[in-house]
């Protein structure tokens, strides 16, 4: 095994794990689940500056990459040699692939992830920011979802009849939208998600069993404490008066 993707189910690393499944390259790229116990440990922080997932390592020369979309594009270019998932019909279609490659992690995912984390807090909890929830719900319902509904139209997949790498990127956003209860108003997106669920590589990543990895505040707090302790230690070594607020 020469390469490893470090992944946490339902985290944004899922798009890369899903790509590996679709390409059938799990013999070449091992998908390793990093559990809450190892999240933000010394090894993790040495490989990813924020202790996030995904990160990807080619073991022989310790070549390391972070950022889901960069790893996604790297693996697609390296392994989709038969253009099974990236047979773009022209430069414009390639451009639109780049559009979603950036729009998913920069716009859609942060919007839905913030809703997910906010909804972990009970109504009335001081941790819950209703303004942030409203802002993210508005962005989803008034901007993002209408854009996706219009783009998909009555096509089975985002670029037409053929499933492509773009559907891996957007499939994750559909899963998140469903998790935060915001997909049901959009029948075409619901039908699209059902279509994706017919793919074994998709259900291998997004299934009930893997939901044990969905964050809750208790599981996550150990990793956060570990990060805070490390930062306070580094700050004191540098003589900085730094306390995590
Ligand atoms: N822009 C980064 C975002 C990475 C990211 O935010 N990962 C989240 C999961 S979805 C994470 O690892 N969170 C754990 C943490 O922050 O402790 C990417 O697309 O790879």
From TrEMBL:
Domain of life: Eukaryota
Naturally occurring in which organism (per UniProt): Heterostelium pallidum (strain ATCC 26659 / Pp 5 / PN500) (Cellular slime mold)
Protein family according to the UniProt entry: Belongs to the GST superfamily.
InterPro entries xrefs: Glutathione-S-Trfase_C-like, Glutathione-S-Trfase_C_sf, Glutathione_S-Trfase_N, GST_C, Thioredoxin-like_sf
Entries under SUPFAM superfamilies matching the protein: GST C-terminal domain-like, Thioredoxin-like
Residues of the GST C-terminal domain: 90-220
Residues in GST N-terminal domain copies: 1-83
Name of the featured protein: Glutathione S-transferase
């Amino acid at each position: 095994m020469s390469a490893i993707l470090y992944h946490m189910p339902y985290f944004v690393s899922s798009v890369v794990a899903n790509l590996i499944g679709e390409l059938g390259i799990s013999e070449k790229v091992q998908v390793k689940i990093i559990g809450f116990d190892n999240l933000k440990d010394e090894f993790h922080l040495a490989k990813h500056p924020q202790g996030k997932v995904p990160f990807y390592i080619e073991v022989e020369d310790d070549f390391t990459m972070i950022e889901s979309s960069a790893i996604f594009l790297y693996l697609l270019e390296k392994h989709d040699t038969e253009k099974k998932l990236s047979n773009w019909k022209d430069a414009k279609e390639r451009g639109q692939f780049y559009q979603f490659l950036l729009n998913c992690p920069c716009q859609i995912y942060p919007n839905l992830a913030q809703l997910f984390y906010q909804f972990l807090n009970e109504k009335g909890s001081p941790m819950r920011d209703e303004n942030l929830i409203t802002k993210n719900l508005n962005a989803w319902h008034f901007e993002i979802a209408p854009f996706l509904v219009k783009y998909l139209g009555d096509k089975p997949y985002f670029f037409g009849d053929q499933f492509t790498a773009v559907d891996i990127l957007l499939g994750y956003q559909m899963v998140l939208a469903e998790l935060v209860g915001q997909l049901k108003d959009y029948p075409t997106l619901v039908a699209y998600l059902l279509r994706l669920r017919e793919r074994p590589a998709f259900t291998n990543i997004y299934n009930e069993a893997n939901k044990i990895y969905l964050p809750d505040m208790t599981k996550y707090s150990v990793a956060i404490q570990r990060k805070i302790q490390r930062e306070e230690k580094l700050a004191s070594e540098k003589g900085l008066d730094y306390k995590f607020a």
